[in-house]
Amino acid sequence: MASYNRTKRIAEEIKKVISSMLISGIKDPRITSMVSVTDVEVTNDLSYAYVYVSILGGDEESTLLGLKSAVNYIRREVSKSVKLRHTPQIIFKVDDSIKNGMYMDHLIRKVNEGATASSFDEEEFDEE
């Protein structure tokens, strides 16, 4: 149980460092300002850190390539900020949960609009 808490704390620290770097530290033109870190998962042996990023607007592929090209710089900065014996390898993955949530919201609104249009008019029952 203690190991789980430790990996969660380390994951949160890595998330803070990378989030602040995306705001001010990385000067790659492929990385837009609409990139945010949604989650970080660290393996139990602390050898890998999976960083889930949400990319809104812009080209998703080129932004991911920009992040992957800056991974050594990001790892070095994480190493300076988070004191560990071995800094985990950082692997970036695209998190589509926000995009999927917006799509589900659109579908729910569409179904609700269809149900409202095809259902009876409530004013007719109020008059009787």
Automatic annotation (TrEMBL):
Keyword Cytoplasm: yes
Keywords, sorted A to Z: Cytoplasm, Ribosome biogenesis
Keyword Cytoplasm: yes
InterPro entries according to UniProt: KH_dom-like_a/b, RbfA, RbfA_dom_sf, Ribosome-bd_factorA_CS
Any Gene Ontology CC annotation: cytosol
An annotated GO BP: maturation of SSU-rRNA
Subcellular compartments: Cytoplasm
Molecular function (Gene Ontology), one example: ribosomal small subunit binding
Family: Belongs to the RbfA family.
Function noted in UniProt: One of several proteins that assist in the late maturation steps of the functional core of the 30S ribosomal subunit. Associates with free 30S ribosomal subunits (but not with 30S subunits that are part of 70S ribosomes or polysomes). Required for efficient processing of 16S rRNA. May interact with the 5'-terminal helix region of 16S rRNA.
Assembly, per entry: Monomer. Binds 30S ribosomal subunits, but not 50S ribosomal subunits or 70S ribosomes.
Protein name (record): Ribosome-binding factor A
Organism of this sequence: Romboutsia ilealis
Gene: rbfA
